[in-house]
Amino acid sequence: MDQTNQSRTRHPAGWIFVLVGLMLLAACAGTAGSDTLPPVAEPTAGESDAPKANDSTIPATLSGLLETEDDRPPALRALTSSWNTNWTKHLVPYDEILSGGPPRDGIRSIDAPTFERPEAAAGWLAGNEPVVVLELGDDARAYPLQIITWHEIVNDVVGGRPVVVTFCPLCNSALAFDSVINGQTFEFGVSGLLRNSDLIMYDRTTETLWQQFTGEAIIGDLAGERLDFLPASIVSFDDFRATHPDGRVLSRETGLRDPSSYGTNPYAGYDTYDHILSKGGNFALFRGELDGRLGAADRVVTVSLDEAGVDTAYPYAVLEEARVINDAPGGRDLVVFFKPGTASALGARIIADAEDIGATGVFDPVLDGRKLTFRFDGEQIVDEDTGSAWNILGRATAGPLAGQSLSPIVHGDHFWFSWAAFKPETIIYQP
User: Fold this and answer.
1) What pLDDT digit, counting tens, does each position of 52-80 carry?
2) CA neighbor of 199 nearest in space, from 178, 157, 169, 223
3) Domains of the chain: total
4) What is the CATH number of the domain that holds 361?
5) 312 Cβ partners below 8 Å, 6+ apart?
6) Predicted structure pTM score
């Protein structure tokens, strides 16, 4: 093995908190290999063996700018009393922060990942199972959601570059970042806190809190800093294996759980929670206003173009019909691909048995200075210019351009409610 250290029943709205709480507790079950909930003790506030902050590593770029009183609400103060986070620097109101249930590091990040080749992983990973794909240079890696749903964060080195690969099950958000900030590499863990239902990470050097959805440091000495996004996508293992037969797949030998327990979904049925909503109801530890332009649990492909100040969402329902969208939000050319064949990570108890929700990819359509236009010909995605066929990872598989690849554009595959909470001015694509 190659190793690297690198038609639904409406429930009372109040049940959402019970259901989500149980699923969160399942995700951090303390008995390795157990798929039943262990006895739950009252968590002690902020238990962690994380390294303590070293003042010499803290840049002073925001000194004084964000200084406030430590005005944490009592519940948050009690939960985090032993943390070394600088609570006098924060960009968001503390009343937006909720406990997800587990204490800090109760959901354990994978900090020493090992990998195996796709042919070996095929012995335990079904072809339709979703994997997060990150490709840097010649190093292509797949992180199965059957594993990272239980851990939410993988600290890794890909293509020689320190990265952090993340997945927030409550938002269906798989995002990857460069973990170097101002020349220093940081390691991240799960804080146990949520904002807008989204994972809040923390770095183990300064104990600053980071919003997974935006990559922004929101509380602590590094408040205001941002992690650089890396293009990552969720596709099926079959699609990864076909494109990268010599790639690497995150091994189930994490040392954190019984390997045989992976493949089960602690959030079974979560992606159908849209039907639970009712007037005055809420969604998955979410306190904000729901954007009714789409259903709360509708899946969307999202692209943020900071330079143009434009955020765009492409509903899966539209993509499933069109299969290809050529667009230019804010004047930036892009193409969105959709392909069926990828199971939901948050549907059935056994992920491989879940509903087929498909997969997406977002790419720059310009290749070698030539802008290509794409369409679905009824069987596959092709470009109109050369007739070459393209797969969901942006690789030409047949035709004059076979073997060439489009440049990926950073995007996300999210539940609409969570994206709209962070990006309320989002334009929803309409054909």
Assistant:
1) 333 333 333 343 345 567 889 999 999 99
2) 169
3) 1
4) 2.102.10
5) 302, 303, 305, 327, 329, 426, 427, 428, 429
6) 0.86
